């Protein structure tokens, strides 16, 4: 989020209306607000002036209120825009009349105890009522204000035109008469549409004063000026003072902020608004929040502020690849099994009723009552819980589990990622890693293999996995936790994403193969079924929550699945609404926490170290708790061996680099030796600077916690910073005299690794003046959308891998030909061989030989990884030797620049408590590498 506060007398606002209000406007890091989904095209925004009412000033101001009445009782503390909310007045006698203050400047008269309210604009609204009998005021709930959060809904086309206004008050929503308080304004994300920019801000103070503030130089920042009650206007330096407000009349004010966005090509403007109620209390007119809200803000709602500009990639549980998507998927789709607390070797049943065991196999009755594993570890039977229902009421049975697994296998090989790739190696004979199982429309054998891999029995409500090789239970259960999300088959078919199983019912596997072959096309990015990628609230969610509202790139609102069973051990039926906001920068998220407007802050893709002083300050003030733990997560810079130059020039026409630049192994090695690893760890990441362990350097992807982990001390050819050697390598590469200009891409908001990229770019230019590298921020979702074979325009990009505690999840997925990481970067034996021949054909046999040798080394690595996978799965006695050699060969190829294994930190409001008061439920390394929250295990 970018924050700039500003007040500007553009429209000649009368200074008379500013008496009693002092405004000083500068750049301010702000906090938080909720949002408006309305678009108004081609005209100025609707000006909403919310004055304190005649009734407020004349009848209440000097009244002695005899009764401090009970608060209003809403059915929910959060609703969507224009959604009716039923509210009850707890004490209401015949003849009573109530004036209900909605917090948006409106008052409604009520003559019974039940009524509805709704809000056209999102925001945070305070509600209270005054009760009258025989025209006499007999009491008020003004000292028991309740707060309602109204959240938005808008579609993808609107998200490209709008930005969400952000408005925050440093002293909350209750202030005293004449008390000065700070207000910050800004935006959550800039509009994503072409030629769109932030044009101006309109701030209504709720007392008849409306201020228009231009944006600066199409950056989105508000112009920095100062305006005081004396009429003085002067420009001031940024970051000296916040906006300061004070009101000289008590009452309930509705402050609104509208941001106008503009298409600079067409001139069309659009607007988007948010509201916040502010209660100004005096001796004769007192306001305070209902006591249950005084220590815990927004009861019944958990707000998670996540520093992930751009948000998730997909909510399809079988086609996700990133931790941002995974967090939501974890909460809306149920799994057969789950990890027990922080253990990666102990599991608990979720949608399965029991964890299957080998001991149950010998007893046929027990086998199907409780689930079982065959003694040779090739058959796994799961008993599905009875009575399961999706959030839309659809029953979930063994058939749905089977249907989901078949869909996963059909989609195995989809790009940029498909979860069936985890299951296929163990159920499909001779499966070729990360490729589709159905090779052609007539591949009846492939279709039969898919069907034979998983079976179901609705009579016993069991699902059986038939494996093509023995897999030990701990290994298989680890794999299962990564892909066994269960979907509602009936719902999939209702939105046009169902499997055509006619061939199966006709026993015609050629017909089935044709249907599966056609379905495979929907498993690649760009061809997704968008109703499954971004499901609506009436979808068949099988987890503990459902998606109530989704604002693309901005936020998602989750509500409890009303049909979740009450008797599932370790998975308590939730009662909190969850709001996840994907904010632009860490400072915004931390300020949200400080103000009580966020309960959790997560930095899934951002290093925490620059924000430690702020965190320590919040801890000392009792506003934050921090938990640190190690992770199964590694970050690295990836090289792309076959850059899509046309797409790169769409990012910036000035970029210039041969597509094959990083296919040269000596170029990659030179770049690796030009990175200053110790400076990164000690100064940029900040281990020495802050005297705290934020992470550790590493070489290779088999990090601590992974079976057969190999420490760098036992490996050779791990690069260190040596600019002299790097220059020598670059000269030997044959590419020293090639002038290049290209980006080093880092996830938006990641200031630590952007700084590292700047350091690296400077060293690269010193190593070879022909190299001009430019660090470039890019939203995480955009990086993923580019990370596709044959069309990847990113020359070097910073990315990570979060994995399971088994080497099988690290070696093949990062290094194997066709894998999620290797394929988009053109690690392909045929490509390298052809490129070598091309260089030879131009008489550049030196480079041709380098790439030819590289192709042979990569071919050896591919074969060795296959052997290492079998060793890990089956537990060979010499597994450690084989796996270590595979890691060494990968390092020798310098496929990536290994940077850091980061430690992870949970940042919480002090009142947040984990399930059973045990933080282990929220700190399993296999699921919290990106700090994904399983929200059902949090209490507030």
The domain tally reads 4
Low-confidence stretches: 1-65, 224-241
* Residue fraction in strands: 15-25%
- Tell me, briefly, the overall form: globular
Class computed from helices, strands and strand pairing:
alpha+beta
What's the count of strands?
42
Termini distance?
Answer: 26 Å
Total number of helices: 25
Biggest beta sheet summary: 11 strands, mixed
> Kindly state the mean pLDDT as a whole number?
85
How helical, in percent, are the residues? 25-40%
* Rounded radius of gyration (Å): 30 Å
Q: Can you offer a commentary on this structure?
A:
There is one protein chain. The protein is α+β, with helices and mostly antiparallel strands and 940 residues long. The chain folds into 4 domains: 2-294, no CATH class; 333-534, Dipeptide-binding Protein, domain 1 (Alpha-Beta Complex); 553-631 and 907-939, no CATH class; 633-902, Dipeptide-binding Protein, domain 3 (Roll). Helices cover 26% and strands 23% of the residues. It is built from 25 helices and 42 strands. Strands 4, 6, 7, 9, 10, 11, 13, 15, 16, 20 and 21 form an 11-stranded mixed beta sheet that branches. Mean pLDDT is 85; it is low at 1-65 and 224-241.
Write the layout of secondary structure elements.
Layout: E1 2-3, E2 23-24, H1 54-60, E3 73-74, E4 78-80, E5 85-88, E6 96-101, E7 107-110, E8 114-117, E9 123-133, E10 136-140, E11 146-151, H2 156-159, E12 165-169, E13 174-176, E14 181-187, E15 196-204, E16 210-214, E17 226-227, E18 233-234, E19 243-245, E20 251-263, E21 269-281, E22 301-306, H3 323-332, E23 337-339, E24 347-349, H4 364-370, E25 372-373, E26 379-383, H5 398-411, H6 420-427, H7 444-453, E27 454-457, E28 462-466, H8 473-483, H9 489-494, H10 502-505, H11 509-520, H12 530-533, E29 545-551, E30 555-560, E31 577-582, H13 586-595, E32 600-602, H14 612-620, E33 625-629, E34 633-639, H15 645-651, H16 665-673, H17 677-684, H18 687-690, E35 695-696, H19 723-733, E36 740-747, H20 751-767, E37 771-778, H21 780-786, E38 796-802, H22 811-815, H23 829-841, H24 845-874, H25 879-892, E39 896-902, E40 904-908, E41 913-914, E42 938-939
Parallel strand pairs: 4-11, 9-21, 13-21, 22-31, 22-32, 36-37, 36-38
Antiparallel strand pairs: 1-14, 2-17, 3-5, 5-8, 6-7, 6-9, 9-10, 9-11, 12-14, 14-19, 15-16, 15-20, 17-18, 20-21, 23-24, 25-26, 26-28, 27-28, 29-30, 30-31, 32-40, 33-40, 34-38, 34-39, 35-39, 41-42
Helix pairs in contact: 5-6, 7-11, 16-19, 19-20, 23-24, 24-25
GO molecular function, one term: peptide transmembrane transporter activity
Protein name: Extracellular solute-binding protein, family 5
Domain Solute-binding protein family: 348-783
């Amino acid at each position: 989020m970018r924050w700039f506060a500003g007040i500007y007398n553009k429209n000649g606002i009368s200074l008379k209306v500013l008496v009693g209000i002092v405004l000083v406007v500068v750049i301010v890091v702000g906090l938080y607000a909720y949002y408006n989904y309305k678009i108004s095209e081609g005209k100025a925004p609707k000006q909403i002036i919310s004055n304190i009412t005649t009734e407020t000033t004349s009848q209440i101001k000097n009244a002695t209120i005899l009764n401090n009445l009970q608060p209003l009782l809403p059915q929910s503390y959060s609703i969507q825009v224009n959604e009716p909310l039923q509210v009850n007045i707890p004490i209401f006698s015949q003849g009573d009349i109530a004036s209900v203050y909605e917090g948006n400047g409106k008052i409604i008269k009520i003559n019974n105890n039940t009524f509805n309210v709704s809000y056209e604009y999102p925001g945070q609204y305070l509600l209270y009522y005054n009760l009258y009998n025989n025209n006499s005021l007999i009491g008020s709930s003004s000292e028991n204000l309740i707060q309602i959060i109204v959240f938005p809904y808008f579609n993808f086309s609107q998200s490209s035109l709008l930005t969400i206004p952000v408005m925050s008050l440093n002293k909350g929503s209750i202030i005293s008469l004449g008390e000065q308080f700070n207000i910050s304004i800004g935006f959550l994300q800039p509009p994503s549409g072409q030629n769109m920019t932030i044009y101006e801000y309109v701030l209504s103070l709720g007392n008849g004063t409306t201020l228009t503030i231009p944006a600066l130089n199409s950056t989105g920042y508000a112009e920095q000026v100062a305006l005081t009650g004396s009429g003085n206007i002067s420009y001031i330096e940024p970051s000296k003072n916040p906006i300061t407000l004070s009101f000289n009349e008590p009452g309930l004010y509705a402050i609104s902020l509208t941001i106008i966005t503009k298409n600079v090509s067409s001139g069309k403007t659009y607007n988007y608004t948010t509201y916040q109620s502010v209660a100004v209390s005096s001796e004769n007119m007192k306001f305070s929040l209902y006591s249950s809200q005084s220590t815990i803000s927004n009861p019944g709602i958990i707000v998670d502020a996540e520093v992930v500009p751009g948000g998730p990639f997909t909510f399809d549980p079988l086609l996700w690849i990133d931790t941002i998507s995974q967090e939501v998927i974890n909460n809306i789709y149920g799994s057969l099994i789950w990890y027990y607390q922080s253990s990666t070797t102990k599991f608990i049943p979720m949608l399965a009723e029991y964890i299957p065991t080998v001991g149950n196999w010998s007893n046929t009755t027990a086998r199907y009552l409780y689930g079982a594993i065959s003694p040779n570890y090739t058959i796994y039977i799961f008993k599905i819980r009875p009575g399961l229902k999706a959030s839309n009421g659809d029953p979930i049975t063994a058939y749905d589990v089977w249907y989901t697994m078949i869909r996963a296998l059909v989609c195995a090989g989809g790009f940029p990622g498909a979860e069936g790739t985890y299951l296929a190696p163990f159920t499909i004979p001779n499966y070729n890693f990360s490729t589709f199982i159905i090779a052609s429309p007539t591949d009846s054998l492939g279709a039969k293999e898919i069907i034979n891999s998983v079976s179901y029995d609705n009579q016993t409500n069991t699902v059986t996995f038939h494996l093509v090789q023995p897999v030990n239970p701990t290994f298989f259960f680890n794999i299962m936790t990564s892909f066994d999300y269960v979907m509602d088959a009936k719902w999939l078919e209702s939105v046009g994403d169902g499997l055509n199983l006619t061939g199966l019912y006709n026993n015609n596997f050629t017909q089935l193969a044709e249907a599966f072959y056609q379905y495979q096309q929907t498993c690649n990015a760009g061809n997704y079924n968008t109703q499954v990628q971004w499901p609506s609230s009436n979808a068949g969610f099988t987890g503990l929550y459902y998606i109530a509202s989704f604002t693309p790139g901005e936020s998602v609102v989750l509500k409890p699945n009303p049909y979740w069973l009450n008797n599932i051990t370790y998975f308590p039926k939730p009662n909190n609404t969850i709001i996840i906001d994907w904010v632009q920068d860490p400072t915004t998220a931390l300020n949200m926490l400080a103000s009580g407007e966020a309960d959790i802050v997560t930095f899934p893709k951002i290093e925490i170290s620059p924000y430690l002083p702020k965190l320590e300050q919040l801890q000392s003030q009792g506003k934050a708790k921090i938990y640190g733990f190690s992770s199964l997560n590694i970050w690295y810079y990836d090289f792309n061996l076959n850059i899509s130059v046309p797409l790169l020039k769409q990012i910036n026409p000035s970029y210039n680099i041969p597509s094959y630049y990083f296919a040269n192994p000596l170029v990659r090695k030179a770049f690796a030796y030009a990175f200053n690893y110790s400076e990164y760890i000690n100064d940029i990441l900040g281990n020495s600077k802050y005297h705290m362990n934020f992470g550790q350097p590493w070489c290779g992807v088999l990090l601590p916690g992974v079976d057969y982990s190999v420490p760098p001390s036992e490996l050779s050819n791990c690069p260190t910073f040596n600019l002299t050697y790097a220059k020598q390598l670059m000269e030997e590469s044959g590419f020293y005299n090639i002038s290049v200009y290209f980006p080093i891409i880092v996830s938006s908001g990641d200031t630590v690794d952007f700084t590292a990229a700047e350091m690296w770019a400077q060293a690269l230019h010193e190593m070879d003046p022909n190299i001009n590298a430019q660090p470039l921020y890019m939203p995480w979702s955009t990086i993923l959308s580019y990370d596709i074979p044959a069309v990847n325009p990113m020359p070097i990009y910073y990315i990570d891998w979060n994995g399971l505690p088994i080497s099988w999840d690290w070696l093949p997925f990062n290094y194997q030909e066709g894998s999620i990481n290797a394929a988009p970067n053109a690690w392909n034996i045929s490509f390298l061989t052809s490129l070598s021949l091309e260089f030879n054909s131009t008489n550049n046999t030196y480079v041709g030989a380098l790439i030819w040798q590289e192709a042979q080394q990569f071919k050896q690595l591919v074969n060795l990884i296959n052997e290492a996978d079998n060793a890990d799965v089956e537990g060979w006695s010499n597994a450690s030797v084989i796996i270590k050699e595979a890691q060494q060969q990968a390092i020798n190829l310098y496929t990536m620049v290994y940077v850091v294994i980061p430690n992870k930190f949970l940042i919480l409001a002090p009142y947040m408590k984990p399930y059973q008061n045990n933080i282990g439920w929220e700190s399993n390394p296999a699921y919290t590498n990106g700090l994904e929250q399983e929200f059902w295990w949090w209490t507030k």
